[in-house]
TrEMBL record:
Gene3D superfamilies, per database record: DD-peptidase/beta-lactamase superfamily
SUPFAM superfamilies reported in the protein's UniProt record: beta-lactamase/transpeptidase-like
Beta-lactamase-related domain sequence ranges: 60-332
InterPro entries: Beta-lactam-related (IPR001466), Beta-lactam/transpept-like (IPR012338), Diverse_Enzym_Activities (IPR050789)
Pfam families in UniProt: Beta-lactamase (PF00144)
Organism of this sequence: Sediminitomix flava
Protein name, per record: CubicO group peptidase (Beta-lactamase class C family)
Amino acid sequence: MRIIAVLLIFTFFIHGIGECQIYPNKNWFVNENASDIGWNDRDCSDFERYIIDSTNITGLVIVHQGQVVFDYGDIEENSYIASCRKSVLSMLYGKYVENGQIDLDKTLEDLKIEDHSPFLEIEKSARIKDIIAARSGVFLSGSNGGDFRRLAPERGSVQPGSYWLYSNWDFNLAGYIFEQETNKDIYNEIEDQLASPLQMEDWNKSLQLKNGNLEVSKFPAYHMWFSTRDMARLGLLMLRNGKWLDKQVIPKAWVKEMITQRTSYTEAQHNAPILKEDGLDLGYGYMWWLIENTQDSKLKNAYSAQGALGQNITVYPEIDVVLAFKTKSRYRRRNSIQTQMKVIRKAVEIYKPN
């Protein structure tokens, strides 16, 4: 297993009686004795062989108890994270929901939002909370593809909030609303709220770029580029309920809101039957996927940020583990969603606590 650059100064933060939490400083701490805490060398080698033989992953890291226990490939290079961007945006919302600048009950009519196609009267009642849950009931085309809009029912046929559809129109609008209500730029907020306090090693604001066909919709996609090891920091922040060292970076209550079920896996699979083929049953919160209906205790209450081609951050709260992996599209490599789900399972199958 390749050793990443290590700064052997790391921070212990006491959290409750008898429990220590470890955070990286500028560099991750690598646990050189991971086999002592359940990550057997042979099992890790078998997992690495699986990655090489059966996936197109270009970088992967597993963090357990705040330390790197396994890494593979190039975990330093920034590349496109696809729809993981949506989960990152959801994290940014928390500060402004807490201070009242974003009122989740505001409607499209309240916000004075307009797109090229006029809204139907019923659509005007869609609230921000519906939009960030992919339940707006507004079935317009987004400025970029890669969603389930082809499966949408007829416009005006459902009440906002009552129907889930994974739609980039909702997600792009969520970015637009964030900037309108806070008067802040998304990428500046990532830097201020996340990259700086988490001491991200590879964050580069100059790489970040909004894009989309603005003739189709006024709302661009807020694309993002992160390294695998910086994605793992985001996962660790979520695992620690929004706290980093002694600072509450994201309100604890908002972390809970993001991963509270808004859509069950049964509803998601009913509205998008293709999800039945994924290999894990996935519900939905506020722009985070929720792993449901599992008999594996290690996967209980787990949740993910997921992106096309093979971008992923998965948090396993029951075992204090974060998984992050990437597939750099520039290399013309990609992983199916089914492969992503297998990696999510196999990454913790190799964990065998003593």
